[in-house]
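FAQ
Q: What does a multi-component entry look like?
A: The components come first, one per line:
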Amino acid sequence: MKRLLVDMDGVLANVYEQFIAFEKEKLGITRELSELVGKMEDEAFEDLYTYVNTKDFFTNVLPMAGSIDTLEKLNAKYELFIVSAATEFPLSLTEKMLWLKRYFPFIHWKQVVLCGTKEIVSGDIMIDDHFKNLDTFKGQTILFSQPHNMNRDIKDHIRVENWNEVAALLL
Amino acid sequence: MKRLLVDMDGVLANVYEQFIAFEKEKLGITRELSELVGKMEDEAFEDLYTYVNTKDFFTNVLPMAGSIDTLEKLNAKYELFIVSAATEFPLSLTEKMLWLKRYFPFIHWKQVVLCGTKEIVSGDIMIDDHFKNLDTFKGQTILFSQPHNMNRDIKDHIRVENWNEVAALLL
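Then the predicted structure of the entire assembly, as tokens:
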């Protein structure tokens, strides 16, 4: 059984929607997805570090469309781990575990890794939206499209646009 | 530079002292270390799962004697990661990060892994008090003595009794 590592923010969790909502609510700025293309999250949003350190930021994020059904099927076919680079944000850690329990109750706590760098984690396939995680991974790498990575050509990774494409590729 | 993985509970964090304090405070039972030998933590203490799910249980644990100085020296010599199997206890996660920041400020958040199983983490040397973590690890394994492992003969791991012995072995 192949070991599949799945990222949370920007892959399972729709953090962009939440960033846009915070930017609107806190600063009155309306961001369109199109203007965020090619910018890292902390360049795209004025006050990103405040948002992600705000209590319940991660509690109230919604899952990405189609992620729940597909992940449940992947969980039956692969040795699945959820791997999130999250230790930079201590508040997020408890919230992320409770969020997974709420939306992905079929994921056992043994299947979750919250880390600082993903270089220490081994597996066969990784789904992630950040090059920094994919570029150092030794297995097959799948780039999940998000505004910050949309304008970059890729050659070493397979790009997927949504969870339907993940399902088509891996199920 | 060799990658060294160091456990938290029972290695860096003196959880036994905290279990004994909770058992005394909550149930009025005085436990001696000697009566805990050979018993897993959840056999040794009446209400372990309540204790570890209590807010601030992990915040108020004290570091093991000698751990701070030795870990700081190890941090200069090894590619050091703190690896804690902690996702079973969501409340512990945020508390553990803040606890590390308080007592071990030289540990960067990139050096912390909070997981369910340690099988997914790779490295050269592991220090842990649990056989379940050491037995599946592919590198050098160091067993940190705690009451639950004290009565077992070991052949595949090196046993250390305290942080002075860790220093003597690895520095």
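Q: Is there any commentary attached?
A: Sometimes. For this entry: The mean pLDDT of chain A is 95.
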